[in-house]
C-alpha cells in the first residue's frame, strides 16, 4: 500500500468497547539488528576507556553501582557472533566485564544490597538496585561458560545472595520497580535453575498485567504517568523474550497502542494526560518491549527517525531480545485520525498539520507534591510550530488551569515554603469535579466546577488556522475565567499589536488595551479579545526542589479571559505562519522573496571518476579527478555579469576542494581560492543582485573532493569533517538561507567504473543524511538536496524526508512525456513531492539538449501549484573553463527565455 493511501484511510479498530482509528500498516519494515551490531562494536573501545583497570569501576566522579551498567552491552558484544563484530569472544572485553562485576561484589553489603549513592554526593539508603542487578545477571548469563572457575563461583554466590533478598522482600505491589525486579528474578531463575524464582516472577508478572489499565497504561494514582509506562513495557518485554510467556503479549499490545497515540509528531510525549510530568522536549527511544507487536514497532520506527545515536545499553538490549517485522503508523504520522481511549477519558485528533490532545482525567487535589493537579486538559500542536497550547499540570498555580472559579490569589507558591498546603481554600475552584469528552468534530470537553459548567473546543479550520472556543454558563456569583497556557521559547520575541518584548527573566503583565487585537510568539499568532490579559512567566511548583522553586524556563505564557453576564463565549483564532524559505532573520520574509531563477556553477569539478576509464569508447577527461583547480576566473566574471543581465538571481556554487578551508586545509587542490578571495567574490555577486548559495555534494558517488575522507564514509572522523565544513561554509557565506548537500546518484550503476565503491543503504543513508541536515539547520541555514532518491524509494522517501528540506527533483530530457515508465516516474516525482507538501525547485539542464529547461518550466507552470514552487535551477554540468564558454552562455540564455515564458 502506498503512503498516500495509508494516510487517507479512516476507519475503526476496537481494542475494547471504545473506538479508535484503524491501525494502518506501513510498507517499510522495522529492522535494526545488523546496524546495531556494527554500532555496538564501534562503541566498545570508548566503553573500555571509561573503566579504571585497577578497580574495575566505570564512569567518572563519585562512583555508584549504576556506573557498572556497561558490563551488559560489553557482554552482548562479546557474545554476538558476526562478521561485523571484532569483539566476539575477545579476551580483553571478557576481562573488563569480569572486573566490572568484581567491583559490584566488592561494594555489596552482607545482605546483598548496595548503598544508593548519587553523583551529587547524597545517599538514599541501602537498596537492591534493580537496574544494576538485572544487567549483572544478564551479563553473567552470556559469559559464565568462559569465566575462570573461581571467578564464576564468586559471581554465582554474589548474584544468588542478591536475588534471594529480592525474591524475599522486593516483589510487593505490582508497580514499576518491582516489575523490573521480577524480570531479573526470572532470568536469575533460568541461570541458576531455580524453579521457585521463575514461578514467583511469573506469578508477579501476571499481577503486573492485571494492574494495567484497559487504556494501555499503568496508573500510579489516577490516570497515566507516561514515562513510567516505559519501565513496565521494558520489564514485560525482556521477561517475554526470556520466558515466551504469551500471557503478557496483550499488555504489550495495549501499551504500544497507548504510546502510538500519545506521542506528538516530533517524537515528544503528550503531557496532557500525564498526572506527574509537564511537557518536555526529550524524545524517548522506547525499549525492546515495543518490538514484539506491530504497533509497537511502528512507535519505535517513528521515534528512531528523530534520534541520531543510541546508547550501547539500548542497542545491546535489542540485539539480544528485539524482534524485527512489520509496523503500523503512529497517530502523528496520519493525515486524518481520531483516537479515543478505552475509558473515554482521553482522545487524540490528528488533522494534519494539527494534532490535538484532550484529557478528561480529573480527580481531587492531592496533598502529595508528586501528584499534580488535574487542571490543564487541552494541548494543541502544529507540525510547523511544535507544541503551542498546553504544557501539562502543576500545583499551586491556578493560572495553569483551563478554567478557574473564584479568586486565584487564594492559591499560590510562597518562596521558601517547604511544606505548603496544596489544597485551595474556600473561594477558589481550579480543578473540575467532572470532565466529559466531546468526541465529534470539533473535539473538546465539558468541565464542571461546582455549579459552573465550562466547555472548550478546538477546531482546525485549515492548514494554518484553528479556532479555540471557550464557554461558561454563568451559574455562579464567583468570578470565572478561562486560561490558555502557551509554550514559551526563551530569548524569542513576544509581539503584540502595540509592543515587542523578549521572553526572558524579566516578567511582564499586559492588559487588553496594551495587547491590542493579537499576540505573536515564534511562528504563531493568537487573536486577543477585549478584556484579555497576558502574564509571563506563570511558574509551576517544581516537586523536585524542596521549596518548589522553578526556573524561568519552566514557565508558561498565560492568556486569561474573564467571563461576565455579557461575555460568556470566546472564540480565538490561532494561526501558524507559513514556513520560511530562509533560516536567517535578517533576510527577506517568504512573501518578499522573489521566484528563484538559479544557475549552478562549479568552482571545483572533482566529483565523478577516481580513475581514468579506458574501457569507455570516448572517455571524458573532464570527469577525472585533477590535483589542480580547473577554473577560469575571466570566464566566471563574464558568466556572472551575463547572469545578472539575464534575470538570474541565484548562483549555486559547487565548492568542493576549490577552497582553502581553515578547518581542513588538506583538502585544497592547487589554485584553490583563499577565504578572502571567496568572500570578496560573494560580496561582488550580491552587488550584482545574485544570491550566492554554497554546495558541497556529500553523495558517495560525487565526494572525490573530500580526498581521503571520501573513503571514510559513515565513520566518526567523516562525520566530524562534514560538520566542520558545513559550519565553516555557512560562516563564509554569512548564514545563507540555503545550503545544497547534493546526495544524488548514490547507486552501484553510477559507481560501476570507480575504483572505490560506497553505497549507503536503508537506515545508514537516512542516518547520514539526517546528520548532514542537522548540521545545516543548527548553523542557521535550510538544507537543499537533489531528490532522485525518491525515484527508487518513493514511499520510504515520503515517509521519512523532513518537510524542512528543500527539494530539487531533476529531469533533463527534451520532452516531459515519455513512453518509458521509468523515465516518466522522474517527471511524476515533481507531483509526488508537491502532493506530500514539500517545497521544491525543479531543475533542468542543457547538458543533453538546449530545449529542456524551457520545456520543464512550461510543464511546471501548468502542473504544479505556486504555493510550493520556489523557483527553478539550470545545471550546465560543465567545468567553468574557456572550453565550455558557449555551453554556459546557452544555459543562461535558456534561463532568461524560460523566465519570460513563466512570467507571461
Number of helix segments? 23
DSSP strand content: 15-25%
Walk across the major sheet and give the strand order.
14-15-16-17-26-23-22-19-20
The general outline is globular
Average pLDDT works out at: 91
Quaternary organisation of the protein chains: single chain
Radius of gyration, whole Å: 31 Å
Number of beta strands: 34
Backbone structural class: alpha+beta
Tell me the major beta sheet: 9 strands, antiparallel
**Poorly predicted spans:** 1-23, 581-592
User: How helical, in percent, are the residues?
Assistant: 25-40%
Topology diagram in text:
Layout: H1 3-8, E1 13-14, E2 19-20, E3 25-30, H2 33-49, H3 71-79, H4 91-107, E4 114-117, E5 123-127, H5 130-143, H6 149-169, H7 176-191, H8 195-211, H9 226-243, H10 249-261, H11 294-304, H12 312-321, E6 325-328, E7 336-340, E8 346-351, E9 354-359, E10 378-382, E11 386-389, E12 403-406, E13 428-429, E14 434-438, E15 444-449, E16 452-460, E17 465-472, E18 480-487, E19 493-496, E20 500-502, E21 508-510, H13 512-515, E22 518-521, E23 524-527, E24 533-538, E25 556-562, E26 569-576, E27 596-602, H14 633-645, E28 650-654, H15 675-687, E29 691-695, H16 716-732, E30 738-740, H17 748-751, H18 762-778, E31 782-786, H19 789-792, H20 794-800, E32 806-808, H21 821-835, E33 843-844, H22 852-863, E34 871-874, H23 885-903
Parallel strand pairs: 27-28, 27-34, 28-29, 30-31, 31-32, 33-34
Antiparallel strand pairs: 1-2, 3-6, 4-5, 7-8, 8-9, 9-10, 10-11, 12-13, 12-18, 14-15, 15-16, 16-17, 17-26, 18-25, 19-20, 19-22, 21-24, 22-23, 23-26, 24-25
Amino acid at each position: 500500500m502506498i503512503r498516500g493511501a495509508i494516510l487517507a484511510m479512516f476507519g475503526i479498530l476496537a481494542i475494547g468497547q471504545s473506538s479508535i482509528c484503524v491501525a494502518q500498516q506501513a510498507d517499510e519494515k522495522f529492522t535494526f539488528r545488523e546496524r546495531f551490531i556494527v554500532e555496538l562494536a564501534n562503541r566498545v573501545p570508548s566503553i573500555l576507556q571509561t573503566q579504571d583497570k585497577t578497580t574495575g569501576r566505570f564512569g567518572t566522579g563519585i562512583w555508584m553501582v549504576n556506573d557498572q551498567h556497561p558490563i551488559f552491552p560489553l557482554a552482548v558484544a562479546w557474545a554476538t557472533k558476526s562478521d561485523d563484530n571484532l569483539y566476539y569472544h575477545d579476551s580483553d572485553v571478557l576481562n573488563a566485564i569480569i572486573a566490572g562485576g568484581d567491583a559490584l561484589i566488592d561494594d555489596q553489603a552482607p545482605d546483598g544490597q548496595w548503598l544508593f549513592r548519587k553523583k551529587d554526593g547524597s545517599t538514599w539508603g541501602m537498596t537492591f538496585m534493580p537496574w544494576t542487578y538485572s544487567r549483572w545477571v544478564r551479563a553473567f548469563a552470556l559469559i559464565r561458560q568462559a569465566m575462570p572457575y573461581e571467578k564464576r563461583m564468586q559471581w554465582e554466590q554474589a548474584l544468588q545472595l542478591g536475588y534471594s533478598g529480592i525474591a524475599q522482600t522486593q516483589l510487593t505491589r505490582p508497580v514499576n520497580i518491582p516489575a523490573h525486579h521480577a524480570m531479573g528474578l526470572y532470568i536469575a531463575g533460568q541461570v541458576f535453575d531455580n524453579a521457585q524464582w521463575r514461578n514467583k516472577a511469573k506469578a508477579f508478572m501476571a499481577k503486573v498485567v492485571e494492574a494495567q489499565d484497559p487504556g494501555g497504561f499503568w496508573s500510579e494514582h489516577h490516570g497515566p504517568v507516561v514515562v513510567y509506562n516505559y519501565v513496565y513495557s521494558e520489564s514485560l518485554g525482556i521477561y517475554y523474550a526470556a520466558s515466551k510467556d504469551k500471557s503478557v503479549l496483550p499488555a504489550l499490545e495495549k501499551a504500544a497502542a497507548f504510546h502510538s497515540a500519545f506521542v506528538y509528531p516530533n517524537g515528544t510525549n503528550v503531557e496532557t494526560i500525564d498526572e506527574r510530568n509537564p511537557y518536555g522536549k526529550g524524545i524517548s527511544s522506547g525499549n525492546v518491549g515495543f518490538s514484539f507487536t506491530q504497533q509497537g514497532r511502528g512507535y519505535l520506527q517513528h521515534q528512531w527517525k528523530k534520534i541520531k545515536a543510541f546508547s550501547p545499553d539500548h542497542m545491546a538490549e535489542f540485539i539480544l531480545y528485539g524482534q524485527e517485522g512489520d509496523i503500523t503508523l503512529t497517530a502523528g504520522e496520519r493525515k486524518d485520525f481520531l483516537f479515543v481511549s478505552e475509558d473515554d477519558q482521553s482522545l487524540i485528533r490528528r488533522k494534519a498539520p494539527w494534532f490535538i490532545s484532550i484529557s478528561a482525567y480529573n480527580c481531587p487535589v492531592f496533598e502529595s507534591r508528586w501528584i499534580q493537579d488535574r487542571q490543564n486538559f487541552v494541548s494543541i500542536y502544529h507540525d510547523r510550530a511544535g507544541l503551542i497550547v498546553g504544557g501539562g499540570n502543576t500545583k499551586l498555580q491556578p493560572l495553569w488551569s483551563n478554567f478557574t472559579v473564584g479568586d486565584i490569589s487564594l492559591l499560590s507558591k510562597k518562596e521558601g515554603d517547604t511544606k505548603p498546603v496544596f489544597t485551595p481554600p474556600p473561594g477558589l475552584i481550579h480543578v473540575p469535579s467532572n470532565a466529559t469528552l466531546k468526541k465529534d468534530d470539533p473535539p473538546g470537553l465539558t468541565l464542571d466546577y461546582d455549579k459552573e459548567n465550562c466547555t472548550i473546543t478546538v477546531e482546525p479550520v485549515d492548514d494554518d488556522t484553528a479556532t479555540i472556543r471557550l464557554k461558561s454558563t454563568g451559574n455562579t456569583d464567583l468570578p470565572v475565567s478561562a486560561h490558555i497556557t502557551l509554550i514559551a521559547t526563551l530569548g524569542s520575541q513576544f509581539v503584540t499589536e502595540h509592543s515587542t518584548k523578549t521572553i526572558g527573566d524579566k516578567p511582564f503583565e499586559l492588559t487588553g488595551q496594551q495587547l491590542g487585537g493579537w499576540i505573536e510568539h515564534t511562528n504563531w499568532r493568537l487573536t486577543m479579545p477585549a478584556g484579555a490579559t497576558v502574564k509571563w512567566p506563570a511558574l509551576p511548583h517544581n516537586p523536585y526542589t524542596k521549596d518548589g522553586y522553578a526556573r524561568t524556563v519552566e514557565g508558561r505564557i498565560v492568556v486569561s479571559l474573564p467571563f461576565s453576564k455579557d461575555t460568556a463565549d470566546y472564540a480565538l483564532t490561532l494561526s501558524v505562519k507559513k514556513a520560511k524559505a530562509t533560516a536567517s532573520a535578517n533576510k527577506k520574509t517568504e512573501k518578499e522573496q522573489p521566484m528563484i531563477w538559479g544557475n549552478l556553477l562549479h568552482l571545483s569539478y572533482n566529483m565523478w571518476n577516481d580513475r581514468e576509464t579506458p574501457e569507455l569508447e570516448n572517455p571524458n577527461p573532464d570527469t577525472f579527478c585533477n590535483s589542480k583547480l580547473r577554473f577560469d576566473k575571466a570566464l566566471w566574471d563574464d558568466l556572472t555579469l551575463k547572469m545578472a543581465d539575464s534575470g538570474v538571481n541565484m548562483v549555486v556554487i559547487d565548492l568542493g576542494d576549490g577552497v582553502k578551508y581553515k578547518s581542513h586545509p588538506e583538502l585544497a587542490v592547487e589554485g584553490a581560492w583563499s577565504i578572502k578571495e571567496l568572500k570578496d567574490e560573494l560580496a561582488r555577486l550580491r552587488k550584482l543582485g545574485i544570491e550566492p548559495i554554497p554546495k558541497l555534494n556529500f553523495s558517495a558517488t560525487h565526494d572525490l573532493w573530500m580526498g581521503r575522507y571520501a573513503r571514510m564514509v559513515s565513520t566518526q572522523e567523516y562525520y566530524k569533517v562534514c560538520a566542520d565544513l558545513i559550519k565553516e561554509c555557512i560562516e563564509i557565506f554569512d548564514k545563507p538561507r540555503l545550503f545544497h548537500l547534493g546526495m544524488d546518484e548514490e547507486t552501484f550503476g553510477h559507481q560501476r567504473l570507480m575504483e572505490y565503491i560506497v553505497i549507503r543503504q536503508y537506515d545508514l543513508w537516512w542516518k547520514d543524511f539526517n546528520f548532514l541536515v542537522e548540521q545545516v539547520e543548527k548553523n542557521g541555514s535550510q538544507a537543499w538536496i537533489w531528490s532522485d532518491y525518491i525515484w527508487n524509494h518513493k514511499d520510504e522517501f515520503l515517509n521519512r524526508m523532513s518537510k524542512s528540506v528543500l527539494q530539487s527533483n531533476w529531469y533533463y530530457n527534451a520532452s516531459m512525456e515519455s513512453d518509458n515508465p521509468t523515465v516518466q516516474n522522474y517527471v511524476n516525482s515533481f507531483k509526488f513531492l508537491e502532493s506530500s507538501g514539500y517545497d521544491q525547485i525543479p531543475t533542468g539542464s542543457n547538458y543533453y539538449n538546449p530545449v529542456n529547461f524551457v520545456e520543464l518550466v512550461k510543464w511546471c507552470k501548468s502542473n504544479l501549484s505556486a504555493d510550493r514552487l520556489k523557483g527553478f535551477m539550470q545545471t550546465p554540468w560543465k567545468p567553468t573553463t574557456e572550453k565550455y564558454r558557449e555551453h554556459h552562455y546557452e544555459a543562461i540564455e535558456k534561463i532568461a527565455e524560460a523566465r519570460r515564458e513563466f512570467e507571461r
